[in-house]
Amino acid sequence: MKICIIGLGYVGLPLAHAFSSKYTVVGFDINEERIAELQRGYDRTFELSIAQLQEARENGMRFCTNLADIAQCNIFIITVPTPIDKSNKPDLTPLIKASQSVGKVLKKEDIVIYESTVYPGVTEEVCVVELERVSGLKFNVDFFCGYSPERINPGDKNHTVTNILKITSGSTPQIADKVDALYASIILAGTHKASSIKVAEAAKVIENTQRDVNIALINELALIFRTMNIDTHDVLQAAATKWNFIKLKPGLVGGHCIGVDPYYLTYKAEELGYRANLILGARQINNGMAKFVADRVIRLMIQKDMKIKNAQVLILGLSFKENCPDIRNTKVIDIITELQTYGCVLSVYDPVVDSDEAMREYGLKLENNPNINAYDAVVLAVGHDAFLDLHVSPSQKLVVYDVKGVLSQYDERL
Ligand SMILES: NC(=O)c1ccc[n+]([C@@H]2O[C@H](COP(=O)([O-])OP(=O)(O)OC[C@H]3O[C@@H](n4cnc5c(N)ncnc54)[C@H](O)[C@@H]3O)[C@@H](O)[C@H]2O)c1
């Protein structure tokens, strides 16, 4: 078997590395800069270490941007992004384009496996249509499909691709067995063969939807407890002593999984005539948390008789989650823009994030070792390990707001 991984991001690269221990693997991406970096042995997502990339290359893994270089492969695994547009509608363009690329090199007996998170039906109703149209081959006669969603958690070095149980599925019972055996050969935690591609698609999208809804409940509780002047973290610590209480913390829900995937499900539900009020309500609560934080910071500053216009505010952390350099769809930006509307002057420090990317994506110049005492307010927005030993103490001249509940001293935490 010759495996081609299409889309070498947070999901595709670790997967390619895992397969390279047993199979001939080619990694394909349309981003030439990314391919050049990988060829040099550098992974900007930090999902693979230099040694792991080296290991993959020693195993014969190659990286390319040219379709001719993947034409010999017979298993194509697609791990491209599945974003939403400005009105929260699924944007299937990368999936469609990747399917068209594969369609150009597809041969009889090939299997195309999708890993990107989608709503039930995308593989067979959208992607297969492109594969058939471009290749001129017939689905489930000439070529076959599978769907195996990814569950990795970027920045988490314990839950990595081979030690997370993987859902598999195939377009026929025989192909389902084949896809399952393929993954079982590299996934140490084992596999679960779903009864159909749609079931596997649905399982993935509800995992993140469930998490989003549960976090929204905790966020709503945080909003309620603030009106009661009760510390939410203390309440959660007490409640979590019950064996079946789900342990979550309030916070921002950014990134391109938990804050995005539910919209895939609600979009399809709505298309079929069902409005998913609970899921959409949860999305609304989670999307509103950044504004809530900004408003609380302003309130605390006013309580300390501080002038708001031109106040210097330092934000600690820009990425969408701790110890991860990914800044796409980070909700920290919403805190920044909200505070700017009050006339505050914002500075951002994040030692995990690539400063060029922060400039490119958001026009933000990241600080380098800022002096905390030079600010009127400090907002800890991301719980990077690098911030855990930070000595910051609130005073009449300094407001400290802790979004993540990790600081020992603060004026308020979410
Ligand atoms: N990042 C996560 O934590 C995570 C976890 C589980 C599932 N997922 C899902 O996996 C999918 C991929 O996510 P990601 O975080 O790896 O995305 P990513 O943006 O990190 O990487 C995607 C890669 O695909 C490339 N690409 C885009 N269009 C392409 C095309 N037409 N042909 C070839 N390459 C193309 C991009 O250049 C990029 O390098 C998404 O559906 C996501 O929801 C992500």
What does this structure look like?
- The chain is an alpha/beta fold and 414 residues long.
- The mean pLDDT is 96.
- The protein has a six-stranded parallel sheet, with helices on both faces. It has a five-stranded parallel sheet with strand order 10-9-11-12-13, with helices on one face.
- Helices cover 39% and strands 12% of the residues.
- It has two domains: 2-204, 3-Layer(aba) Sandwich (Rossmann fold); 229-413, 3-Layer(aba) Sandwich (Rossmann fold).
Q: Could you name the key traits of this structure?
A:
single chain; 414 residues; alpha/beta; Rossmann fold; six-stranded parallel sheet; five-stranded parallel sheet; 13 helices; 39% helix; 12% strand; binds nicotinamide-adenine-dinucleotide
Major beta sheet summary: 6 strands, parallel
What's the gyration radius in Å?
A: 23 Å
What is the level 1 CATH name of the largest domain?
A: Alpha Beta
What structural class do the secondary elements suggest?
A: alpha/beta
Listing every helix as H and every strand as E from the N terminus to the C terminus, the arrangement reads EHEHHEEHEHEEHEHHHHHEHEHEEE
- Order of strands, main sheet, comes to 3-2-1-4-5-6
Name the average pLDDT: 96
Helix content class: 25-40%
Low-confidence stretches: none
CATH homologous superfamily label of the largest domain: NAD(P)-binding Rossmann-like Domain
Head-to-tail CA distance between termini: 51 Å
Number of helices: 13
CATH topology of the largest domain: Rossmann fold
What general outline do the C-alpha atoms trace?
Answer: globular
